[in-house]
Every structure is written in structure tokens, then in C-alpha cells.
Fold this protein.
Amino acid sequence: MRTFFIDKIPRIIKSKKQLEKKLKVKIINKGKQIYVSGKAEDEYVAEKVLDALDFGFALKIAMLIKDEDFELEIIPIKNYTKKTDLRRIRARIIGEGGKTLKTFTELTNCFFEIKDNYVSILGHPEEIEKAYEAIIQLIRGSKHANVYKYLEQHRPEPVLDLGLKIKIKK
């Protein structure tokens, strides 16, 4: 049995039955404490999904963690800057009207959420690496254009299968 402290408890309670069914665990809540019991692997996945929900990800997006190819990465902003003006740094990451986060989502195929002084990234490990580096560049003061250029240069090439090759079955 694992215990968690969740800030956004109403989100968890609202989708408790769905979470229990899809994650194959039993969820008990007492105040801001959540108890999760089940198999060890299921508890681990439930912990990651609950973290994602607590950060503000939608249930549908948070459940992507159940797929083994998706991970949740959390970046503490304070670890990468000595500046005390964290509000300005958060504003740089979000962008005007959420434009920067939207652009990051399009360029990296990852999902982003900001909570307090943390940025969370949900996506495939290879894509998270690039997104992580881009967020750190922004925190350290790089221009937005330079960060976008970095992401565009490190974008994976799309694999185009035109179906022209003959597949031989063994």
C-alpha cells in the first residue's frame, strides 16, 4: 500500500471509479491523503498517473502513462536558476496566452503543465529529453526563437511507408 498527498483531491475523487478500473488498484482517500493498494507494478503506475492528475493533466492524457512508452518528468525551476523572480520565468515558459507551451507541444509531441515552481512533461522518453533541454534553455534566459530552432533541428524525421516494399512472411 502506498500513500500520497494530493493537492487537487476533487479531480481524483471525481474519476476514482475510472482510475480503479483502468489501473487495477483500490484507491482510498482521507482528506488530502490517498492510499493506493494493489500489485506493486500497478501501484507504481497509479502513483505516476495520480502525480500527472495532481499537476493538472486531463484524465485522458494522464492515462497515457499506463502505456509503457510514456513517462512523466518533473522539472524543478529553482534548480536551474539563481534568480528569485520565478513569476517572470514561469511567464516565459507559458508565453503570451499559452503560446509558448502550445508551440512546445507541437514541436515535441509532449504534453506540458506548470504547477507552482515545477514544469511537468508527459511523453515518450526520446521526446522528453529534447523538451527537457528546451525548458532548461528558456529558464536560463535563451531567446524563444533560439529554443524553437533547437527543437526544430532535433525533431525526429517522419517515417513514410508508402507500402512499396514487398514484405516476405517467414
